[in-house]
Design a protein that fits this description.
By secondary structure, this protein is an alpha+beta fold. Helices cover about 15% and strands about 30% of the residues. Among the domains are: about 80 residues, no CATH class; about 90 residues, no CATH class.
Length: about 260
């Protein structure tokens, strides 16, 4: 299996820097370089601080033309750097303080009907009126919008041709990497509900740590159980949702796809 596809805007400019629009909050210098990509995220590095940041693909939008002086990568949501992670900006409503000696007026006084105005009499609309037809039309449009959202979510949630579904971000797995052994997995995800081991030839052992509440199978591989290391994760249907770069062996995605259930 080939490596995960690189986002279109990074296939051609190579080492050319780019800027995000709008800029990521809490990072003052908005100049970046591409590092690598997975199914669900893109790793970029800040040109001044050399800070490496994982950007979820679902936040990446359109890109300006390559012949423009500054290449811009659009963001579908305003993002901020917070606690070592990229998160969407949450706007909070701030209540204005009351003036000195001012008290909150009851709503009943604000909405009193001035004297002399006639009361509003409710009018019952008969079935088959234009108002009912309008409600039916609005309901049909709403159902169509919901269907479109479900279709888009389905196609963005996985690569159908490769049988990959619901890719996980780095934070969903506690930042596990190829250097982590069984103890490191347990420290980050907790004790597994079940643990199984399988001999993959005379020089390799494969282990699976089962986390049913998370819907995950964590795969370990090594010459024996003691030196086994994390090589990726499968979902509850035994489909790969996360792979890693193995030193001198490339990406583990191909191995995970061909791994028989045990």
């Amino acid at each position: 299996m080939s490596a995960p596809p690189v986002p279109p805007f990074l296939e051609h400019p190579g080492r050319r820097p780019f800027s995000f629009y709008p800029p990521i909050r809490n990072i003052p210098h908005n100049k970046w370089f591409y590092r690598k990509a997975t199914w669900s995220e893109v790793l970029v590095a800040n040109s001044r601080t050399h800070e490496e940041v994982w950007i979820p693909r679902r936040y990446l939008g359109d890109v300006s033309r390559l012949d423009e002086p500054v290449m811009l990568v659009g963001l579908l949501k305003e993002l901020e750097w917070q606690g070592g992670r990229i998160l969407p900006v949450q706007r909070r409503v701030i209540e204005m303080p009351l003036a000195v000696n001012e008290v909150t007026r009851p709503r009943s006084l604000e909405h009193q009907v001035p004297p002399g105005m006639a009361q509003v009499v409710g009018i019952r609309v008969e079935d088959g009126s234009p108002s009912r037809m309008l409600k039916l039309l609005i309901g049909g449009i709403s159902m169509g919008i919901v269907g479109c959202v479900l279709v888009v979510s389905f196609y963005r949630g996985g690569v159908l041709g490769n049988h990959l579904y619901a890719p996980l971000s780095q934070s969903d797995l506690g930042g596990l990497g190829p250097q982590d052994d069984r103890e490191a997995v347990v420290r980050r995800l907790g004790p597994p509900a079940e643990e199984r081991w399988h001999a993959a030839g005379s020089a390799a052992q494969l282990g699976v740590l089962v986390y049913p509440r998370r819907g995950l199978y964590i795969i370990l591989r090594g010459s024996n159980r003691g030196d086994s290391r994390y090589v990726g994760a499968l979902d509850r249907n035994w489909n790969p949702v996360r792979s890693v770069e193995l030193p001198g062996q490339g990406d583990s995605a191909a191995m995970l796809q061909s791994l028989p259930r045990f």
